[in-house]
Each structure stands twice: as C-alpha cells, then as structure tokens.
Specification:
Layout lengths: L2 H24 L22 H10 L7 H27 L13 H21 L4 H25 L7 E2 L2 H27 L22 H4 L17 H32 L5 H25 L4 H26 L2 E2 L2
C-alpha cells in the first residue's frame, strides 16, 4: 500500500471515529462501560447471565446496559484501529525516499496526539464525563483529523502550485478563518458536553428572547471539581442557555468570516481558476453545516441530525485545511 493510500484509509477511519464518538456521546452512552480500556472487566461486553450478574455486583453504581456498552466498545475498537493505522504511517515515514512530499515529523506528532487522546478517553470515563475532559477529547479528535488531512494533501501533492495576488493578506485571512472555526468547534463541544443543545428550544430566538438572561461566569467555569457525575449536566437553565446562545453568536461570526474568505478566494480566480473550486467547496460545506445546525434546534435534537452536525464540522475543518494548504504553498502571480 502506498503512503497516500494508507493516509487516505486513515483519514476515512478518523472521520468514522469522530462520528461514532458523537453518536456515543449524544445517545448518552459515554459511561456505557464504567471502566477502561475494557468493559466491566471484559475485552467485549458481558452478555452471558453469569457475567452480567458478576459485573452488576462489581459495578453496583452502574448496572450493565448492553446496548450502551456496545456503542462505547465499538467506538473504542475503531479508535484503537485508528491508532494502529497512524502508527503504521509513522513507521512507513522512516523509510528514506527521494520524494520531497514525504512527511517525516507530522506522523510522529500524530502518534503522540493519539496517545494523549487515549488518556483523554480514559479520563472521560474515570472522571465521569467531566465537560473539560470530554471537550478536550473532541478537540483532539478534530485535531487528529485535520493533521491527517494536511498529511494527505502533502503526500498526494494536492492543492499545490496555485498562483495568488497578495499572498500575505490571503494567508492572514485563511489563518484567521481557521482559528475562528476552531473556537466555534470548542463552543459546539462545550454546548454538547454541558447538555445545552436544547437550552434554547426555539429559533432564531432563545426562550423567546433575542438576548436571553445570561450567566457567563458559571457557563464557562472550566473546572467544577472532582467526584461529580456530569452525566446529563450539572448546570442550571440560565448557564446552559448562555452556552447555547454563545454558540449561536459564534456561528454568525464564523459564517460571515468564511463567506468573506470564499469571496476573497473567488476574486483570486482571475489569476488562477482553481481558487474558484475551493471557494465553492467552502461555501457548500458552510451551507451544509449551518443548515444542520438550525435543524438540530428546530427538530429538537434528533440523534442522526446531531451526529451529522459533528461530521459537518469535521468536513468544514478539512475544507479550511485544504485552503490553508493551497494558500501557504501558493506562489506570487507575475
């Protein structure tokens, strides 16, 4: 298997892991297995009557719920397979070739990131779905996906050789858009991990307000202490509405920023028509994500739509990584 195909397989699995993680979290199966890395002391889910009885005795605070446990374990199996593929990418990178696109450092950075992700996965369970840990775990998954995308673009020689006018300004715009999107992904994760997705059940208002009562101090307190079970959230309605409302405001800012970036890219098509394709792809990913986000509220958090919202964020992030790769490898138009 070529490095490019290995990278492509890995990034596809990373997308699956991200959507599986969202499915587990949104179906309230994050504590489907109260221990780690196994499940009730097993490498799979205990289903035999004797095994279930023993597990219920050992984990009296968390009786076996087989469907939830399987959701969690399937996610762990997929994440483990992803880790092995990333390790394979790193090992392959050791082989010396004359290919200037070969990545040598980034695959090993990804190995370190995956190890940290495994620790976050463990802490997600042992610290009882602590929002800061679960949010960091989601961001780590998105970072893994984004860096795999960068590797893929490099290995395949994709989005290279573009010509641009005023590269410095274009790089600044693309970089700023990426930073804003990362901030918005954090807000989305914070909304989900604090069970605030339905804190504003109406749209475009929030609890009938254009600016609802807010409590930013409580809403964005990152550390509430240890020994607290955060399943279903611990915040009152006003802090949850504050988180949700901030996420909506962030969505407006990011939408305007990405639409502006698309306009800048479109103007670059006068010197290189390929920029137009990137602009269209960005607008398509943005329109899809905004539509899904609105649907999450309007239809009151249907599970498939909520999971798709996470997948849409990943695709939008990948589109911005492609644009940044094109911008940073572009040459000045003569």
């Amino acid at each position: 298997m070529t490095r490019f195909r290995l990278n492509l397989l890995t990034i596809c699995l990373a997308f699956v892991v991200i959507t599986l993680g969202a499915f587990v979290r949104l179906s309230d199966a994050g504590l489907g297995c109260p221990d780690w890395p196994g499940c009730y002391g097993h490498l799979d889910v205990p289903t035999a009557e004797a095994d279930v009885a023993a597990a219920n005795e050992r984990f009296a605070h968390r009786p076996v719920e087989v469907p939830k446990a399987w959701k969690e374990m399937i996610h762990r199996y997929a994440a483990g397979a992803l880790g092995l593929l990333i390790l394979a990418m790193a090992l392959v990178s050791i082989r010396r070739t004359s290919d200037p696109n070969q990545q040598r450092v980034l695959p090993w950075v990804l190995v370190v990131l995956v190890i940290f992700q495994a620790l976050l996965g463990m802490w997600t369970v042992t610290l009882l779905l602590k929002p800061l840990i679960v949010t960091a775990h989601l961001l780590g998954g998105m970072a893994t996906f984004a860096l795999l995308g960068w590797c893929l673009f490099r290995e395949g020689g994709l989005f290279r050789g573009y010509q641009a006018v005023k590269r410095g300004a274009l790089r600044l715009a693309a970089g700023a858009a990426l930073v804003l999107l990362i901030g918005q992904i954090f807000l989305g994760a914070w909304t989900s991990t604090n069970y605030a997705a339905l804190a504003c059940p109406d749209f475009p208002t929030c609890q009938t307000y254009w600016w609802p009562p807010t409590d930013f101090s409580t809403a964005f307190t990152l550390w509430h202490g240890l020994g607290i079970n955060y399943e279903y959230g611990i915040l009152d309605s006003i802090p949850r509405a504050t988180i949700h409302w901030t996420h909506r405001l962030g969505a407006i800012v990011v939408t305007l920023a990405l639409a502006g970036l698309a306009a800048v890219l479109w103007r670059q098509s006068g010197v290189d028509r390929r920029w137009r394709g990137l602009a269209v792809a960005l607008l398509a990913a943005l329109a899809l994500q905004v539509s899904i986000g609105i649907s999450v509220v309007v239809f009151h958090l249907p599970l498939p739509v909520a999971v798709a919202h996470n997948g849409g964020a990943a695709l939008l992030l990948l589109a911005l990584m492609a644009i940044n790769h094109a911008v940073w490898s572009a040459s000045d138009h003569v």
